[in-house]
What we know:
This protein is mainly alpha-helical.
Amino acid sequence: xxxxxxxxxxxxxxxxxxxxxxxxxxxxxxxxxxxxxxxxxxxxxxxxxxxxxxxxxxxxxxxxxxxxxxxxxxxxxxxxxxxxxxxxxxxxxxxxxxxxxxxxxxxxxxxxxxxxxxxxxxxxxxxxxxxxxxxxxxxxxxxxxxxx
Length: 148
């Protein structure tokens, strides 16, 4: 008897992939009003939480490699949202800080994240519990990758 993989619609990885795709489609028009892409929004969220992080620190927080993050930050700098400055002590370290425009965007963009709660038609508690489960799963998968 030949064993077959689970059908696509029963694959957990496909459910997560589909969720990511749906999230992108949901966020795209909301972020377009602010002239942002989803990765730019994530950078802003990280900097609104703690301004002045280095590129390396942002990469760790956002799980992005420097070669992905640097062009993204350059575009954000051209858009007037952030500034990048090399450390005078260590030229390899580049600090990223919000500009006044980037800081002011926080007030205007405050409710962007609510689009998911509204679209999902679930309460904050349900979404929070689901987020925590996904975060836990993410950490377990990262640990599994690190140990292999």
